[in-house]
């Protein structure tokens, strides 16, 4: 057997059908595809152009971030964290989005990609909030990451005089254009007909986005019910809660990824389960946002009902999915006083196999197995949080974070080596990022709010 690369002597968490964890293991891949996984001694006969000594490393599948805002990085730490949800969005987040130039959105997206790769994320779903769509797609195309990206899409006529017909027609046309220009044709980064969600899309736009996803084999990702306001709005306007209304529209299903989903009632949860609609939970964002997730969230019940739950990092505060894995393994244990909820192995499935299912890529990513894509992460376990190594799965979720990520491969290409991106000039990017943030925030006219003096 021939291979381009073999990594040998590592501990391997495969996430394969048997969920094998292999000590002194090896993974071989050729042309972006894994050709063998097993004990190092059993793969010793494979001829490879490159042999990587995996001693002192833990190999996992690449993590999948099922909800990330690519272009929020320039406002990291700038938005006050003690304001109500509606005020945060209306006065700060949305105006700051709109203040970005296309070049600044491109820089912000590259910063997000660098942060994800450096912490082991190899695939992502963007939140549907890219304004400068073509510029962002060009900026991230050569970074080596795998992703599905959506533009800022809404069509609700909020103001008197708005041309409702034109808003819907233009929104649908933009989605159709994106899918034509950036199809899922084997390229790493492609377009999805994502929606902002909440109450911003008309019934016509929901139906059209759903039709486009089904026609193109893509998916739809949309925000829904992080706080009570979404369902309150739908109840007032339609007499149904948010997910119930989507069910009446016929847009629920395995193509759909609904994000946050904290304020559901049991009937909505049942609709999600019966329709095989996917849910992405962002634990860090929910806790920081004060959504009431530990009080209201039905995530243990959703898991028991068979709902596919993936994980996301959401906004600018962190792009390290491993931090959200740690939170996911803890928050409902405390809320329900039940230590059996969300064990480490279930959380790791959310960040790998479940994310792959949401992406529609279960047959190619999410596990280290023969025939799967060579998307994998090498964690340096010669660090204090890893020593001694007893139970790799438990320690990955409970003890580690993205700082131990040493190397990352996507589609067989090494995109991180020795804790640095290989296809991104990080030093130049960080200089550009700071300069772009300074310029954009100055133009916004919004103040830097700090409880303590910054002098």
UniProtKB/TrEMBL annotation:
The keyword tRNA-binding is annotated on this UniProt entry: no
Gene3D superfamilies in UniProt: Metal-dependent hydrolases, Urease, subunit C, domain 1
Domain of life: Bacteria
Chain ranges of the Amidohydrolase-related domain: 59-415
A Pfam short name: Amidohydro_1
Presence of the UniProt keyword Hydrolase in the record: yes
Signal peptide residue numbers: none
Keyword terms: Hydrolase
Gene Ontology molecular functions: hydrolase activity, acting on carbon-nitrogen (but not peptide) bonds
Family: Belongs to the metallo-dependent hydrolases superfamily. ATZ/TRZ family.
Protein name: Amidohydrolase
Phylogenetic lineage: Bacteria, Pseudomonadati, Pseudomonadota, Alphaproteobacteria, Sphingomonadales
């Amino acid at each position: 057997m021939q291979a381009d690369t073999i990594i040998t002597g590592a501990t391997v968490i495969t996430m394969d059908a048997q969920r094998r964890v292999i000590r002194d293991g090896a993974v071989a891949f050729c042309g972006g595809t894994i050709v063998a996984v097993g004990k190092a001694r059993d793969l010793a006969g494979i001829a490879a152009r490159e042999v990587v000594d995996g001693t002192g490393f833990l190999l996992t599948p690449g993590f999948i971030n099922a909800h990330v805002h690519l272009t929020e990085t320039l406002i990291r730490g700038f938005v006050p964290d003690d304001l109500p949800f509606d005020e945060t969005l209306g006065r700060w987040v949305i105006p700051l989005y709109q203040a970005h130039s296309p070049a600044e959105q491109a820089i912000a997206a590259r910063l997000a990609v660098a942060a994800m790769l450096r912490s082991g994320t190899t695939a992502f779903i963007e939140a549907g909030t890219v304004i400068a769509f073509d510029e962002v797609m060009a900026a991230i195309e050569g970074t080596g990451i795998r992703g599905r990206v959506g533009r800022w899409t809404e069509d609700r006529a909020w103001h008197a005089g708005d041309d409702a017909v034109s808003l819907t027609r233009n929104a649908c046309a933009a989605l159709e254009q994106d899918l034509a220009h950036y199809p899922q044709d084997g390229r790493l980064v492609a377009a999805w007909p994502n929606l902002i969600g909440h109450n911003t899309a008309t019934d016509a736009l929901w139906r059209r986005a759903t039709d486009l996803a089904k026609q193109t084999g893509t998916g739809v990702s949309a925000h829904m019910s992080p706080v009570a306001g979404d369902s309150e709005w739908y109840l007032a306007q339609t007499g149904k809660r948010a997910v119930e209304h989507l069910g009446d529209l016929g847009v629920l299903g395995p193509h759909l990824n609904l994000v946050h989903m904290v304020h559901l009632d049991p009937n909505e949860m049942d609709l999600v389960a019966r329709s095989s609609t996917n849910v992405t939970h962002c634990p860090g964002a929910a806790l920081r946002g004060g959504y009431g997730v530990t009080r209201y969230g039905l995530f243990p019940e959703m898991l028991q009902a068979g709902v596919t739950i993936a994980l996301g990092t959401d906004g600018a505060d962190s792009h390290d999915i491993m931090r959200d894995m740690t939170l996911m393994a803890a928050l409902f244990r405390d809320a329900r006083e039940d230590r059996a909820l969300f064990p480490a192995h279930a959380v790791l499935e959310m960040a790998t196999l479940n994310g792959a299912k949401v992406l529609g890529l279960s047959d190619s990513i999410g596990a280290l197995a023969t025939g799967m894509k060579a998307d994998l992460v090498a964690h340096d376990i010669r660090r204090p949080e890893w020593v001694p190594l007893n139970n790799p799965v438990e320690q990955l979720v409970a003890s580690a974070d993205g700082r131990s990520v040493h190397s990352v491969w996507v589609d067989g290409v090494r995109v991180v080596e020795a804790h640095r991106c290989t296809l991104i000039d990080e030093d130049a990017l960080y200089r550009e990022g700071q300069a772009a943030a300074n310029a954009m925030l100055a133009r916004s006219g919004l103040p830097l709010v700090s409880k303590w003096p910054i002098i």
